[in-house]
C-alpha cells in the first residue's frame, strides 16, 4: 500500500518537474524510464541537461542516437565522460558535426573528461567548441591537442559570454592560445594545465593572457624532461587570485595587478633527482631565471596573502629584496606570508630574513622546511639586520621541519629576542621514521629540546610557544619552575 502511494505521488507531479528530475540523471538512466508506463515514454526526450558516458568507438553512434530523439530546444549543461580516445578520429574537424548538434541547443556549460590511459592518447579538441555565443563555462580534462587555425584574427574564435575556461592538460603550446583568450571578453576564471614532453610537445611561441575582466588565474605546467622555456605574459588588470605551479617558464606582467589579493607561486620540481642531475647544465642560465622570477614576484606588491614555494635550485629569496631603479619594492599590503623551503635548510634563513624587509606590515608568517638537506646546509648564520616586521608587526609565526638541533635553538632565539609583538610561535618537528631501538632516545631529545626552548629569553612577555614533535606535544604554559609537563605519544611495538 505504501509503495503504491509513493508511485501515485510521483505520477501526480507535472511533466515539467519530472523532466527536471530526469535531467539530473545520466542520459541512459533517464531513457530507461520509458518502460515505466505510457506517460513516461517520451519524457526523457525533453531533458535540459545531458550527462553522457561512452567510449571512442561508440561516441558518434551514441550522439546521433540521442540527439535524434531529443525535443528540447535548449541543453543548459552537457557533460561527457569519454574513454578510449584513441578510437576517435585523429583530427578534431571530423568530430565537429557531432559537437555542432550539441551547440545548436544553446548549451551554457560544457564539461568533457577524456580518460587517457596510454602515453600517446590525445583528444583533438574540435574548433567549434570555441565558437559558441551561449557558452558560459567550458571545462576540458585529459591530454588535449588543438585542431585550431594558425591565425591572428580574433574573429576565428567567438566566446563572447564565456566566464570560466579550464584546459587541463594541454599537450602543446600553440600560438593561437593568446587569440583564444582575447576572444573571451567576459572571462573571469582561467585554469590552464600544461603537460609537456621534450620530444612530442610543440612550443610554438609565448602565451599571451590578455583578459580585461579576469579575476582568477591558475597555471600548472608539468614536464617529463627539461623543455624549452615557455614565456607567459599576463595582462589582467582586475586579477585578484593567482596560482602558479611551474619551475620552467618565464612570467611577465604587462601591467602590475593592483587588485591582486592572493598569490601562490610554486617553483619546486616534481623530481628532485632530475633537478640534481641538471644543476650543472642549468648553472649558466639559472641566475637569469632567478633574477627574472624575483622581479615577477615584486610585481605583486599589492598582494595581501602570498604563498611562495621554492627549493635550492629555484631559491629567489636572495634576489627578492633587490632594488629596482634605486629603491626597495615594498609589499605594504601583505599581512600573510607562507613559504616552503625544500632542501634549503637553515643556511637559507639569512636570505629569507633579509627578504622580509620587503614586507613591513606582515602579521602572520608560516615557514615549512621540507625534506632533510645535508648537515652542512643546516648551519645558522645571523643576518646583518633585523627585518622591521619581526620587530614591530609580526603576531603569529609557524615554523615546521625543525630537527631539534643547537642551530634550531639559535634561530628560535633570534626570533624570540627580536619580536616585540609576537603572540604565538608554533613549532613542529620534521616528521621522520625512527627504528624501535632509538625511539626512547628520540623522545628524550625532544623533551630536552623543549626545556631549552622554553628557557630562551622572549622580547614579548605575552608570547606563547606551542611545540609539536614526533613524540612530545607541549607549550610554554606547561613549563613552570623548571619543570615541564607534556603529552607524550607512545608507540608500542608488535
TrEMBL record:
> Where are the annotated coiled coils located?
none
Q: Which CDD domains match?
A: F-box_AtFBL13-like
Q: Which SUPFAM superfamilies match?
A: F-box domain, RNI-like
Q: Which PROSITE patterns match?
A: FBOX
Q: Which Pfam families match?
A: F-box, FBD, LRR_At5g56370
Q: Where does the F-box domain lie? A: 7-43
Q: What is this protein called?
A: F-box domain-containing protein
Protein's organism: Beta vulgaris subsp. vulgaris (Beet)
